[in-house]
């Protein structure tokens, strides 16, 4: 595990995108998972983009391999389907962090 490698989920959104930019500026190795990579490279340079879906536990687990931090900033596509998607997405992130033994703290205070 690289102590300065972070996975940003929801990197193309407002909060995730700003986290991504700040982490790159601070010298982190940034990996970002995104559904469909067509516009990803225009969002930020110096980021390793991985295609995947936060609803898929295997995608999240694979993307988080070797990371010491996961930023969970995802929303359901089009902000629809919250009742069906929010909890499975956070469950997938928690499972990936637990599997990698990533330390966590509320509100990202570990950064």
Mean pLDDT: 84
Number of domains: 1
How much of the sequence lies in strands comes to 15-25%
Indicate the low-confidence ranges by residue numbers. 105-111
Helix content: 25-40%
CATH-defined topology: Rossmann fold
Count of strand segments: 4
Question: What is the C-level CATH assignment?
Answer: Alpha Beta
Annotated CATH architecture = 3-Layer(aba) Sandwich
CATH homologous superfamily grouping? NAD(P)-binding Rossmann-like Domain
Number of helices: 4
Strand order, biggest sheet? 3-2-1-4
Radius of gyration: 13 Å
Quick recap of the structure?
The chain is built from four helices and four strands, in the order E-H-E-H-E-H-E-H. By secondary structure, it is an alpha/beta fold. It is globular and about 35 Å long.
Describe the structure.
It is built from four helices and four strands, in the order βαβαβαβα. The protein is an alpha/beta fold and 111 residues long. It has a single domain, classed as Rossmann fold (3-Layer(aba) Sandwich), CATH 3.40.50. A four-stranded parallel β-sheet has the order 3-2-1-4, with helices on both faces. α1 links the parallel β1 and β2. α3 runs parallel beside α4. The radius of gyration is 13 Å and the shape is globular.
Quick tags:
111 residues; alpha/beta; 39% helix; four-stranded parallel β-sheet
What topology emerges from the helices and strands here?
Elements: E1 5-9, H1 14-25, E2 29-34, H2 40-43, E3 47-51, H3 57-64, E4 69-72, H4 82-100
Parallel strand pairs: 1-2, 1-4, 2-3
